[in-house]
Design a protein that fits this description.
CATH topology of chain A: Hypothetical Protein Pfu-838710-001
Structural class of chain A: alpha+beta
CATH topology of chain B: Hypothetical Protein Pfu-838710-001
Strand content of chain A: 35-45%
CATH architecture of chain A: Beta Barrel
Low-confidence stretches of chain A: none
Strand order of the largest sheet of chain A: 5-4-3-2-6-7-8-1-9
Helix content of chain B: 25-40%
Keywords (chain B): Nucleus, Transcription, Transcription regulation
Largest sheet of chain A: 9 strands, antiparallel
Radius of gyration of chain A: 18 Å
Shape of chain B: globular
Family (chain B): Belongs to the Mediator complex subunit 18 family.
Protein name (chain B): Mediator of RNA polymerase II transcription subunit 18
Number of helices of chain B: 6
Radius of gyration of chain B: 19 Å
InterPro entries (chain B): Mediator_Med18
Distance between the termini of chain A: 37 Å
Strand order of the largest sheet of chain B: 2-6-5-4-3-7-8-10
Structural class of chain B: alpha+beta
Number of domains of chain B: 1
Oligomer: heterodimer
Subcellular location (chain B): Nucleus
Largest sheet of chain B: 8 strands, antiparallel, barrel
Distance between the termini of chain B: 53 Å
Number of helices of chain A: 4
Chain lengths: 216, 239
């Protein structure tokens, strides 16, 4: 049982991202009672189509996302945002995609950092970096409420947690703030009972937000 | 196509995913529907495990125009036996080739499977794949261990009068059932697996001849007599 909220770091206009923000956010979790509980990592991969003739217009999407979550090591998730589809598969689906040679895994982004235990919550804070470099692309956090699996029933308690978190982080006077990821799960056919597919949809939305933040 | 022996083992060192190494040994044959009961009795005696019902909706998808370096094909299998149907993506890759592979009576090919959520068809349509054809396989199977993990399926292929109308499916060849024997293997152990599959096939020889897929040798002349003997033995045992 669990319900998870993802949040991304929205820098103030003109402010730059730095690992110092990550360090301050980690300190902030510890200041409200968070106990470090190891490292975590999720991997998000952009799959791009391979075309026989690049000059010919195509019907297929420009890309879709693949996601590997630490808490589900035997599973893999695909998110096709234009069609609002999230697919859960065994990890071997990656080998099938490679064999089909119709889409290629182009860029992989690692979301990695520390996780904390905080009563009924589990908090993960991490940076988003390409797998091939250390260039910081974003900062995000996962807040997981462990006792419930209903999104609606856990909304209030997660909102309260977020209010406490906002208040704590504001004392650091950092150049930006954390924003909860807005995901319309019903568009993807997902129900109120939280699952890893909900997490995958949030990662896809988070990725879009991080790209938008970098462009801004 | 994969190359038998050294090349296959060499190529596995560079594989990114272990699942790529997954292979299967496979043989197929056909039997007249009237002898299927006898085959079931024989298999029941040989395997010593309960038979499992088979009702698989198989959808073959092919990549759309201009998608992919080469045209590609993938199969979606929907198991209709459980109350909640389960979906699997199956990719059949190249088979072993070379003089060594030709001498084998069993086809060894790479296969990757992945269990997936039920929206996988929409996903592949979204990626630009098109439905090439669909069939419903109805019958039974035995899964057991005899030297290696062996699966024997005896099925009748059905076609659907309308798209996805599995309830209205009708047999394509009512008088013929397909028998398929498969066993999972790896690049390291396929010789032993081939041996165990070949050995098991010999038990079925009076009823049907099994060969590499695409090289069917038809029905066996001795099938009627063997089936009659099996049915008679079975009745005597019951009495």
């Amino acid at each position: 049982m669990t319900v998870k909220w993802l949040m991304h770091w929205q820098p103030k206009p003109g402010a730059t991202l730095s690992t110092q923000i990550l360090a301050e956010a980690c300190q902030c979790v510890e200041s409200i009672g968070g106990q470090k509980d190891g490292r975590w990592r999720s991997m998000l991969t952009f799959y791009k189509p391979m075309q026989r003739d690049p000059s010919v217009p195509v019907e297929h999407p420009r890309d879709f996302l693949g996601l590997a979550l630490q808490e589900q090591p035997s599973k893999y998730y695909f998110i096709l945002r234009p069609n609002r589809i999230v697919v859960e598969a065994d990890a071997s689906i990656q080998a099938i995609m490679e064999k089909l040679q119709s889409y290629k895994a182009r860029v992989t982004l690692n979301f990695e950092g520390f996780q904390y235990k905080l009563g009924d919550f589990q908090v993960r804070i991490g940076k988003c970096v390409p797998s091939t470099s250390e260039a910081l692309r974003g900062i995000m956090m996962e807040v997981e409420y462990l006792p419930l699996s209903s999104i609606e029933k856990s909304r209030l308690v997660l909102e309260e947690f977020f209010d406490i978190w906002k208040e704590s982080i504001s004392k650091k006077s950092l150049p930006g703030h954390f924003v909860p990821i807005e995901s319309n799960f019903t568009d993807y056919g997902l129900q109120d009972r939280y699952s890893s597919q909900h997490t995958a949809v949030q990662y896809a939305a988070c990725m879009a937000q991080l790209i938008a933040a970098v462009r801004a | 196509m994969l190359c038998c022996g050294v090349h296959l083992i060499e190529s596995t060192r560079h594989c990114k995913f272990l699942e790529i190494l997954q292979m299967e040994c496979v043989v197929q044959g056909i039997i007249e529907t009237q002898h299927v009961d006898a085959l079931e009795i024989l298999l029941q005696g040989l395997c010593g495990v309960p038979k499992e019902q088979v009702r698989i909706h198989e959808l073959c998808l092919k990549s759309g125009p201009n998608l992919g370096v080469v045209p590609s094909e993938v199969r979606l299998l929907c198991d209709l036996v459980p109350s909640m149907p389960s979906w699997t993506v199956r990719h059949v890759g190249g088979s072993l080739r070379g003089p060594g592979a030709e001498q084998l009576s069993v086809l060894v090919r790479s296969v990757v499977e992945s269990k997936v959520s039920s929206n996988v068809l929409r996903f592949f349509y979204g990626l630009g794949y098109k439905l090439d054809h669909e069939i419903l396989k109805v019958g039974f199977a035995f899964n057991f261990h005899r030297g290696s993990q062996i699966a024997v399926s005896v099925t009748s292929a059905h076609k659907m009068p309308k798209l996805h109308a599995t309830e209205d499916a009708v047999p394509i060849t009512p008088n013929i059932h397909l028998v398929e024997i498969t066993s999972p293997a790896t690049a390291e152990n396929y010789n032993e697996v081939v041996a165990s599959v070949t050995s098991f096939c010999e038990y079925l020889a009076p009823l049907l001849h099994l060969s590499k897929p695409g090289a069917s040798t038809g029905t066996v002349p001795s099938a009627a007599a063997a089936a009659a003997a099996l049915m008679s033995n079975s009745v005597n045992r019951l009495l």
